[in-house]
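Propose amino acids for all 95 sites.
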C-alpha cells in the first residue's frame, strides 16, 4: 500500500516537472521569435559591410533581452558582439 502511494507521488511530481519544463521551453521559443527580425536585420547589415550599424543593433538586442531576462538572447548577443563582429566570415544561425 505504501509503495502504491509513493508511486502515485512520483508520477505526480514527474508530471509537474514536465509541465514546468514544457512551459519554460515554450517561453524560450516565443522569446526567440520576438528577436528573429532583428537578427535578420543584423545579418543584412553585416553582409553589407555595415559593421557599426550591426553592432548598435546587437547592443539594442542585448538591452531588450536583459529587460526581458531572456538569457538565450543575451548569450547570443554577447557571442555575436565578441566573435562575429570581429570575424565577419563566421556565420552564426539559430537561437
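Proposal:
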Amino acid at each position: 500500500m505504501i509503495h502504491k502511494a509513493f508511486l502515485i507521488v512520483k508520477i505526480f511530481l514527474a508530471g509537474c516537472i514536465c509541465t514546468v519544463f514544457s512551459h519554460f521551453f515554450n517561453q524560450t521559443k516565443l522569446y526567440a521569435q520576438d528577436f528573429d527580425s532583428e537578427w535578420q536585420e543584423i545579418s543584412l547589415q553585416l553582409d553589407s559591410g555595415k559593421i557599426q550599424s550591426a553592432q548598435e543593433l546587437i547592443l539594442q538586442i542585448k538591452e531588450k533581452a536583459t529587460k526581458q531576462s531572456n538569457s538565450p538572447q543575451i548569450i547570443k548577443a554577447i557571442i555575436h558582439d565578441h566573435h562575429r563582429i570581429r570575424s565577419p566570415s563566421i556565420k552564426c544561425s539559430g537561437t
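The radius of gyration is 20 Å. The longest helix spans residues 2-47.
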